[in-house]
Amino acid sequence: MTAMPPKRTTKISLPTSTLPKSTELDATHWLPAERLGQIEVDPPLRPWLIGKGLLTQRIKEACGARFGRKLVHQWPGLLSPALQSSLKVTDTAGLFREVALCCGEEPLVLAQTVVPDSTLSVHPWLAELGETSLGETLNELTGVERSAYEYARLPPEEALSSRQALRGRAHNERRDSVAEPATLWARRARIRLRGAPLLVREVFLPALGRAEAAGRHDA
Question: Where would a tag sit more exposed on the chain, N or C end, judged by fewer CB atoms within 10 A?
């Protein structure tokens, strides 16, 4: 019998969630991996998008002791028709969770998860992860299937929302001097946990390109 992950109780609330309560998260046009080679991607970002291995572990290695996780928000919400189609479920509601992977106070990636109610009823511990890495947790379990990644550029309004929602007070004074990106790259995959589906999406923030430099500085 596989042990369930420990319950985490520490939660960090940031100003706003980067995912709207309307949960139209899947309205974006997603591309298969083979199309990614036909699209211009910043060279420092491409290895992060297509690299193998757990993203959390790769960021840990790049960032060193400055690595951290923050639970941005977790809430119950309605599943849009697009999400129902992506998950291949008839559930009308589910659990939404968003965690920031950070280097120091700088967020590098937003890890977003959608768990339909039918999956949550079978695996209620998914609601108790807190800041624990979902990817690392699933890596220790059996009966986990993951689809190939799909990729998308997020629209400007979501790019701006993600940056602003995760800025700490320490960054406020330099906000005007930081150029906001026109778009943010993201990737998603569908996961089946012993047959029960969930959807994960990772949004890559501009600071990710500086992670390796930060890690070398701390080394």
Answer: N
Does a structural domain hold residue 201? Answer: yes
**Is residue 167, in this structure, part of any structural domain at all?**
no
Q: Can you give the residue range of the structural domain that contains 105?
A: 55-159+183-211
Whether 107 is in a domain gets the answer yes
Q: What's the DSSP call for residue 30?
A: P
Quote the pLDDT of residue 33: 84
Number of domains in the chain: 1
Helix (H, G, I), strand (E, B) or coil at 12: coil
Distances (CA, A) of 123 to 10, 73, 115, 120: 20, 20, 10, 5
**Residue 104 structure tokens:** 């120091």
Q: Residue 210: pLDDT band by 50, 70, 90 thresholds? A: low
The verdict on residue 19 lying in a domain is no
pTM, rounded to two decimals: 0.78
Q: How many beta carbons lie within 10 A of that of residue 161, not counting itself?
A: 18
Tens of pLDDT, residues 190-199: 999 999 999 9
